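User: Can you predict the 3D structure for this chain?
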Amino acid sequence: MAKTTRKQSSTQKQVDATTTITNNTSPLTSRHRLKCKNAKQKEFANLITEKEIVIASGPAGVGKSYVAIARAIELLNNKTNPYKRIIISKPAIEADENHGFLPGDLKEKMAPHVASSIDIIDKIVGASTRLKLVEQGLVQVEALAFIRGKTIDNAILIMEEGQNMSPNQVKTLLTRIGSNSKFILSGDLDQSDRFRDIRSSGLWDVIDRHKNIPEIGFFEFTNEDIVRNPIISKILNNYKRDEIPVITKKPVRPKVTTTTTKSLKISKPTLLKRVLNFFK
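Assistant: Here is the predicted structure, written as structure tokens:
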């Protein structure tokens, strides 16, 4: 780790996703370890350790966020690893609501979107330790829009709610990975607040597109893996009964045969409606 020899101005001291942390007094201890609740969580944690990029999908309550953050904290605390910080990000999409303009600076605007991740960190290391990590730049919050153009070295980036990202946003994110970094992208393909057809989401696209890259690991949780509360599985199963099946083939436009309105005895208004409906 390079030592800083010159005094930096207040603006230079601001830490972003490309800055190397120079503070060696990490408040993390050996007590801050991941405690998996089932075999699937352990498999997911091992995959995070093994791969440069991990893509995880699954329903709410399986522990996607907890395992990713806890394993990231473990890796950060291991001094033999090259990771110097954890970056947390989420797409700024509200769940079927619009609260309008959010006041404050960028961190204050992002706070509601990453609050659940901050809560997980507090459960693992405690609020006081989390505040020290943030103060030292060991834990950072980045808006997806401002990651573009950056090279992220020596960091573990955790991006959640991938089902609300477009394919282009996922492409932008994954191509930011630099040297000695690890990216974890997770989401729930059944709970998109942005896409009616989940096949249009970046999470679906990245799972479908990049299975030929060995450095990228894929992991899928199911309703049977839910650990938050058993009632969640029952709730999700009831919602699944009302889901519209995903269309696997594009609708084929029917062939139009040439005929006259006279032979069909169709009134002009009715014919016009049919023509307009055809082009909708």
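The radius of gyration is 24 Å. The CA atoms of residues 199 and 280 lie 22 Å apart.
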